[in-house]
Amino acid sequence: NKEFFKGIGQIKYEGPQTDNPLAYRWYDEQRVVAGKTMKAHLCFAVAYWHSFCGNGGDPFGGATHIFPWDEKSDAVARAKDKMDAAFEFITKVNFPFYCFHDVDVVDHTSDVAENEKRLQALTAYAKEKQAASGVKLLWGTANLFSHRRYMNGAATNPDFSVLAHAGAQVKAALDATIALGGENYVFWGGREGYMTLLNTNMKREQEHLARFLHTAKDYARQQGFKGNFFIEPKPCEPTKHQYDYDAATVIGFLRKYDLLQDFKLNLEVNHATLAGHTFQHELQVAIDEGLLGSMDANRGDYQNGWDTDQFPNNINEITEAMLIILEGGGFKGGGINFDAKIRRNSTDPADLFHAHIGGADTFARSLLVADNILQHSDYKKIRADRYASYNSGKGQEFEAGKLNLEDLRNIAAASGEPSVISGKQEYLENLINRYI
Amino acid sequence: NKEFFKGIGQIKYEGPQTDNPLAYRWYDEQRVVAGKTMKAHLCFAVAYWHSFCGNGGDPFGGATHIFPWDEKSDAVARAKDKMDAAFEFITKVNFPFYCFHDVDVVDHTSDVAENEKRLQALTAYAKEKQAASGVKLLWGTANLFSHRRYMNGAATNPDFSVLAHAGAQVKAALDATIALGGENYVFWGGREGYMTLLNTNMKREQEHLARFLHTAKDYARQQGFKGNFFIEPKPCEPTKHQYDYDAATVIGFLRKYDLLQDFKLNLEVNHATLAGHTFQHELQVAIDEGLLGSMDANRGDYQNGWDTDQFPNNINEITEAMLIILEGGGFKGGGINFDAKIRRNSTDPADLFHAHIGGADTFARSLLVADNILQHSDYKKIRADRYASYNSGKGQEFEAGKLNLEDLRNIAAASGEPSVISGKQEYLENLINRYI
Amino acid sequence: NKEFFKGIGQIKYEGPQTDNPLAYRWYDEQRVVAGKTMKAHLCFAVAYWHSFCGNGGDPFGGATHIFPWDEKSDAVARAKDKMDAAFEFITKVNFPFYCFHDVDVVDHTSDVAENEKRLQALTAYAKEKQAASGVKLLWGTANLFSHRRYMNGAATNPDFSVLAHAGAQVKAALDATIALGGENYVFWGGREGYMTLLNTNMKREQEHLARFLHTAKDYARQQGFKGNFFIEPKPCEPTKHQYDYDAATVIGFLRKYDLLQDFKLNLEVNHATLAGHTFQHELQVAIDEGLLGSMDANRGDYQNGWDTDQFPNNINEITEAMLIILEGGGFKGGGINFDAKIRRNSTDPADLFHAHIGGADTFARSLLVADNILQHSDYKKIRADRYASYNSGKGQEFEAGKLNLEDLRNIAAASGEPSVISGKQEYLENLINRYI
Amino acid sequence: NKEFFKGIGQIKYEGPQTDNPLAYRWYDEQRVVAGKTMKAHLCFAVAYWHSFCGNGGDPFGGATHIFPWDEKSDAVARAKDKMDAAFEFITKVNFPFYCFHDVDVVDHTSDVAENEKRLQALTAYAKEKQAASGVKLLWGTANLFSHRRYMNGAATNPDFSVLAHAGAQVKAALDATIALGGENYVFWGGREGYMTLLNTNMKREQEHLARFLHTAKDYARQQGFKGNFFIEPKPCEPTKHQYDYDAATVIGFLRKYDLLQDFKLNLEVNHATLAGHTFQHELQVAIDEGLLGSMDANRGDYQNGWDTDQFPNNINEITEAMLIILEGGGFKGGGINFDAKIRRNSTDPADLFHAHIGGADTFARSLLVADNILQHSDYKKIRADRYASYNSGKGQEFEAGKLNLEDLRNIAAASGEPSVISGKQEYLENLINRYI
Ligand SMILES: [Co+2]
Ligand SMILES: [Co+2]
Ligand SMILES: [Co+2]
Ligand SMILES: [Co+2]
Ligand SMILES: [Co+2]
Ligand SMILES: [Co+2]
Ligand SMILES: [Co+2]
Ligand SMILES: [Co+2]
Known about the structure:
436 residues; alpha/beta; TIM Barrel; two-stranded parallel ribbon; 14 strands; 46% helix
């Protein structure tokens, strides 16, 4: 078997003081934090598309990453080389999971049956690789946005024949996911939105989307799939507006169309910030509904208005995210998929390793910090105490629906001007840094 | 009676060719468009707060607008002067409606009973002014964000005693609105959100908000109020994050908490753009749910990230908005309230007139343009034709829920690669300008 | 000769009332406005790259526009077909100018001499086409951003051997521009910036850029080139930060490095808005320095943070731009190049025509409106009057440098609190709409 | 003497492991880093305006911070109380410096002479307090933006009589700064910009600004002032556009108007991000010109488009800033002024302490991290090596201006396609976290 990442061996945990850039400083997979191993908390996954297909191209330039696994002329043989490289990499960084789109795994054509055949061939190959390595599939998905036919949408395309093709792709991707024991299945609707409202029947398109999701879910359940379905919100790009704008919008959609039983959210950091939210906000919105399924880990650039998908490195920000995830009970079915890409000019083979090591260490360190904060500081107590007035007396009656508006008025008139209570924001911000 | 806007008489319609800056060029209230008068389509309202209370101050400077109606030392007498000025202005610009917050009408204290007494005194006075002028109240509301006590929220305040005060204010404002025959009642939750998630129980706060809205609604219905309740979305400012972020978020909230029967949306242009949406988008989202109640008309500055609340003047943008409103059947209960303020340095008394005239003319002209487009162009047909594949055959079966995923796959395999269909965006954009 | 845009003939002026979507409604090239023909005011140019090379691809999907002129396997033959199509289109829309990058005209290789040969072949061909059609070259440029070698910059590349290649390309592009009688030469430094400051010596890179521009300018002047050099500012994309951020930054750079004699600005609308400015602002900055060379006309999407390069359609915005251009004396050497692309899903051959017609009509109409405002309203007088206090007396002395700080203090103490003078913003905004 | 911050004593350094929230964990003023004490590196200053005048008000609400030093009715007596409180606080947090605007120190009237008298009274009082405490004045400034008269600008006001008042205020503020041994003098032109270009002669306004700065500088030099003048850039707010947009714009202005000898920059973090830059970028721009004078330390909110002026807390971001400052040789004359405010709802007296402690510790820790990176890692070497090709041979000749464009072409043709060199961004980002 060819080695694609020559000269780079197994990445190991060496501790915070190591100067080896090809070692983990914080990610110690068997270390137990809050009753679980780091591995079980974080469920790291490598994203097939960015890591093994992303060629460094951007809207202003062609490929810069030239892959040795892209050389063969036969599509299936080439795809197997890529899969060899992928499993070599995933094994070397010691991640338990990977994620893919159908077209990441093997190039697609315009022929439905041929595509199915190709994907099945690679599914069989992946099954062997998974068994040999112990690596598992966190989730599968179908790419319903790159092909020219989806330029006006997939499940929301005004032309039913395009929607049918989307159905064909989803069916094959579900079959592959199930065959590989995939734990979840994701929908990211990159083209499910509009370029201009002037030509768009938004209502009808959204009804089609809901119908399509029901149809896909019903099929998967009939095939015995027990995992979660995830919607991944994003506000825009490539479309001017994407229907799955943010967590609140998607949850409203799932509730309206009776999809809450089967669907949860896969939240991406850079999609949160493009939507005008902190990632922490999106996490909290999902957790408050019991719908935090999984995470696409990356970071955006606060000065650039597109999806830069950089690897995460900000300790303060990830610590605040891990606080919410830990307090909220973790992911429901999913994990932390690095939907992140090395830069166009990161052309050394080692760069892909540095990127994943840095990302994993940032999360591992933040997990430790967050756990310390929750275990040893007054962080939780301060928040709980703020709401104490609703735990008894009239506040409790209000929560229970026992007070009417005149009651509220009379309580206010009787009690006079309330005292002023600090929100202690600066104190709490210092507390975070106390533990980093 | 003192005249506050001396030297400016009744603003009249003089037609597009007039060079009189104190005349309407497009707003001809009795002109019939699409079966209704302009007046009935547009339902223009003057906003009490910006026009008669807004002193030109901003975070970096004090008052620049010094009002002759703010001179008396007695709060009620001063409030009556302001109301005289307000009705003089509303009558001179010939708007059918006005809107207010409780504290716009008369200064409030920390004493619940005293506030009620003051508001009642002014309510009685307003009743006379309305009767004399024919001007009506489009909606009333309570200001639950300016007073120090609301610095941590009103209905979402962690301290129940603050929530009770919010209840007292809403009760009095509902009483006033009902007494004045107000057609709607608005909730804008300026402080219903958070400054930092670190100290916030978002779930509990949102449950309190829902409970509070039910409580207020129940009271008003018991008092015989038949009008609509509106939520006005805004993403942030003054808070870091406001729960009523945008139309989709508010609709999700109303659906979750069973408020859809009584509540609709009051959409503000500048709030749409702060939330990362076009105003057209927000209108369409509301209309698709039958929830477009009313509009706060203004415009933001695309380079400034706060609520500039400028008067609208962009014909292309307002035409696209009016297209959606006209096609969607207009407002449900509300109208077009100019929640807009003249600039800090617009210190001539005439500036307030220019601002309202310009805003009204922009809407009136856009109404005419939009009606022409709908009546005389192929605008609607182009959009309808795009979705024709769902009107019969397999597309229709899909909409009816009769196709499963395997059906879709088989249809795709049998029909082959779909043909490419242009979205005709540039054609449609030209069509708009054809009618301006 | 093959006809590439079959079924679409010569686009003619038919006047505002025409319903023919393939006619000009406002652009009447021989109509005289403010002493010059519309053609001479506007100098419309077609952009070779978007119109004949742009395949509709975006970061999330491949080509959607499949061109009949891209079919031949020989690069030069294929390039000639493309040039035939280009001149057919430019002639049909009746634009006087076009613009190109070297690699738009013919595909480049990694071989410097072969690239020169190819470009010379096409230059000869273009010369014939120009002579036959009367179409002229507004400006030429070299694409120093798409090739992999430029991933770390061109003139600012840390590796000198890449800078040398940039020099080779610029030399060939200058030779072609001069051979074709091009009136100007443009530098857009798409990769002249950084992806991260952590690896960047910004000072040294900017010094290299200045040196490179001097070197290129000196060569062109030696070859007898009399035209202008333009820098096109853009704040970012594809880089995280681009050195030619905006007009003020570029002017500061030109002044620092002694390039003001030969270089002016080519301002793009969408680059202005990405930099946080209105386009009007960028125009005024350039005009105030006598440096408005040319314009890349398009529009961005205010909700999307990347360069959407849509065709312009907003009458209010373009009118405000034309006011500044007209008052400022027009372009110095350049014109209005439509650096704009039809949407990914605008796949009808007619869409390219609709786009250019709509863009040209928007500018032509705005030119007429702006001229009316300048000729017939008090627009200029209002502004001039605002500054009247500096035209005589102490204000004039201040401008002449005759007052010291103590003088100012004494004038203030003597004259007391100044009177308040309105900025009349709403009046002026209404005035614009009066003339649209 | 009254104690205003009762119950809070001297803030001391206790080390990273302390759980005392009212102690420094990293700021150990006498600790030597890179040859200087922390105190000398950081030169921390308290901002008078936010800390002792800022009442928690915002555009949607009134004061929440009610100060015990604001109670007396006599303006000068009240101002002395405030100054007592200020020096108590500055001494307790052990900062070596403070900064003020004239109107922070004592309330101003509309009378020039009375204002001078008041300011002189407080200057005398401050002189005593400085002598007693050892606290020094980092810089003084005049507030030329809050008073109504400046609504159309101060030095750029279209009305000369307003400019004269600005001159009077600057004279008095310079006199006070000089009397107090202030080390620098700052100009922040909050209203030096425009609300709309429609009424603005930008060129003339900028010429007035330049003239005004020369006039003020000349006066101060005549009075013997040896310190620096600083311009503080900000892109907008309160104006739509502010002329001192960002570092590059201000430097261009200073160069054009021959002010580079006396003026440097005071960079504010939140102003950098409002202008679309990282703070690191602004620092590098200033340092590359030798113009980094001082810093206003704070942070913005990446989701809120206004100047939130929060206290800094992000270790990654401040570390990247300190790397640039350390490598660039530190501040020229200035220091780190906390132009930051506690939140509206931070109403405990201790909150002001937490805020300053957290900010100071973030900088102190980042200084240590940055020094470690510079001393012990290959961070500097990696960057230097990237540019090695310009240190000798043809690259060096290019830098020396010895190569013409044909030389570059011939070098490229002879050397062939350059090799691909990684930018190592992820490696460098990991390296930062290695040292945090
Ligand atoms: Co993702
Ligand atoms: Co992404
Ligand atoms: Co509003
Ligand atoms: Co608003
Ligand atoms: Co351009
Ligand atoms: Co562009
Ligand atoms: Co500042
Ligand atoms: Co600030």
